[in-house]
Specification:
5-stranded mixed beta sheet; Dna Ligase, domain 1; 4-stranded antiparallel beta sheet; alpha+beta; 424 residues; 38% helix
């Protein structure tokens, strides 16, 4: 009987956000492009940036001065421009650099389609970020008859070039995927994974949000590879860097947490062309129409809204996207519109289309009322306990309540009187 070891597969699509914003991978060939963190407010096409001496650069998108570039193309990377570099330094290294307005709406839609394609082969996917996802391969091996057939099915479902790596943990699979330079996947087994991982640079820690800030101090300390980091003392790293240092050491030693696949959930979306109502109160009325349409959808089945996504395609090119999580699950139109209308002021440019989608539902309206009643009961019990503690510490008259007696009286003492709080 053949036994399989645990294996995690990593799918990495390089420069995913830049490819979507630029309009396809063919637009990156031989061109020095960089993703602008803020959408351009005044121009609809990618803008050539030229460095200015004494005044703000007229070629930069509005709001980008002093910022940092996003993903960069291979040609820009060859000239020394890297992701996260300041605009001034990037332009100094590559004067012909072209800034592409970001398109978070297009990126979110394309990434959702990519994750759904991986889920179509039966994989339970954990999307780490746009262009990077993981899934467990143990159950799929028997379904497809082996590792090679399973990885081929994943590539076919994606329908686009991708780097695929596999290893015993999420971090090992990521290192394998980043090392791939061809269409053939790199698979690391449990015995060779640790030795192979020890030779990799510590730059891999930059792909984890918890350990990204450790790259610079570790390089100053002379740590260049994960093997050198693994040979350091874990208590010493914990003393200097806290939890991030412990996590970095665990990753370097081949340890990682199990995957957290996303739950299959239903998504409702509504989109409306803005027309002349591209900003101001007219845009708020368009938002009200979107909320009405979303609440009227039959698929909602009386459920409340817990988290929504407000998005817009801008007239100047690119897009804007904002995730809103309500404090309490909502189904009342006025409260939803009030919470979302505040976010409309964050639009960097006039909008061409406005979209509203549900990311997570709450309980049905009846269950929501029960939750609110339970919260009121808990609050009343805490208030009674607080009053009892105050009386025990400072006497019976320490906690009193104001009672309106004669509101028409000219004497203030007769209008309102103090009375003890009754125990209920």
């Amino acid at each position: 009987m053949r036994t399989y070891v645990r294996m995690v597969v990593c799918v990495h699509l390089p420069r995913f956000e830049l490819v979507i914003a630029a309009g396809g991978p063919e637009r990156l060939a031989g061109r020095a492009l960089a993703l602008a963190p803020l959408p351009g407010a005044g121009r609809s096409a990618p803008m050539a940036a030229t460095a200015g001496a004494d005044s703000p650069d007229p070629g930069l998108p509005a709001g980008c001065a002093g910022g940092r570039v996003g993903e960069v193309s291979g040609a820009a990377e060859a000239r020394g421009v890297v992701r996260g570099m300041a605009f001034g330094e990037a332009l100094a290294r590559c004067p012909e650099l072209v800034l592409v307005p970001a398109d978070p709406v297009g990126v979110a839609e394309a990434w959702e389609a990519t994750v759904a394609a991986l889920e179509s082969i039966g994989a339970a996917v954990e999307p780490a970020r746009a262009g990077l996802a993981y899934f467990q391969a143990d159950a799929l091996r028997g379904l497809y008859g082996g590792d090679r057939a399973m990885l081929a099915a994943a590539r076919e479902a994606l329908g686009r070039p991708a780097r695929v790596g596999a290893g015993p943990t999420r971090f090992c699979a990521l290192a394998a995927a980043l090392a791939v330079r061809s269409r053939r996947a790199l698979v690391l087994d449990g015995k060779e994974a640790q030795r192979w991982l020890a030779q990799r640079p510590i730059g891999l820690l930059g792909f984890r949000a918890e350990t990204e800030a450790l790259l610079e101090p570790l390089e100053r300390l002379g740590v260049r590879t994960l093997g050198e980091l693994a040979r350091l003392s874990r208590p010493a790293l914990a003393d200097r860097f806290g939890r991030a240092g412990v996590l970095a050491h665990r990753l370097a030693c081949g340890e990682d947490e199990p995957l957290r696949p996303r739950r299959a959930q239903e998504r409702l979306e509504e989109t409306l062309e803005v027309g002349d109502a591209s900003s101001g109160p007219a845009l708020e009325r368009v938002l009200g129409v979107l909320v009405d349409r979303l609440l009227a959808r039959r698929e909602r089945r009386g459920r409340t809204l817990r988290a929504v996504t407000l998005s817009a395609q801008l007239l100047s090119g690119g897009g804007w996207r904002e995730r809103v999580v309500f404090r309490q699950a909502q189904c009342e139109r006025e409260r939803i519109v009030l919470a979302l209308s505040v976010r409309l002021t964050m639009l960097p440019a006039p909008a061409a289309t406005l979209g509203l989608g549900v990311e997570r539902f709450g309980p049905v309206a009846g269950e929501q009322r029960a939750l609110l009643d339970e919260a009121r009961a808990v609050r009343a019990a805490r208030l009674r306990e607080a009053v009892a503690q105050v009386r025990a510490a400072a006497g019976v008259d320490a906690a009193l309540r104001a009672v309106c007696v004669d509101l028409d009286s000219r004497v203030p003492e007769r209008r309102v009187m103090l009375a003890p709080i009754a125990d209920r």
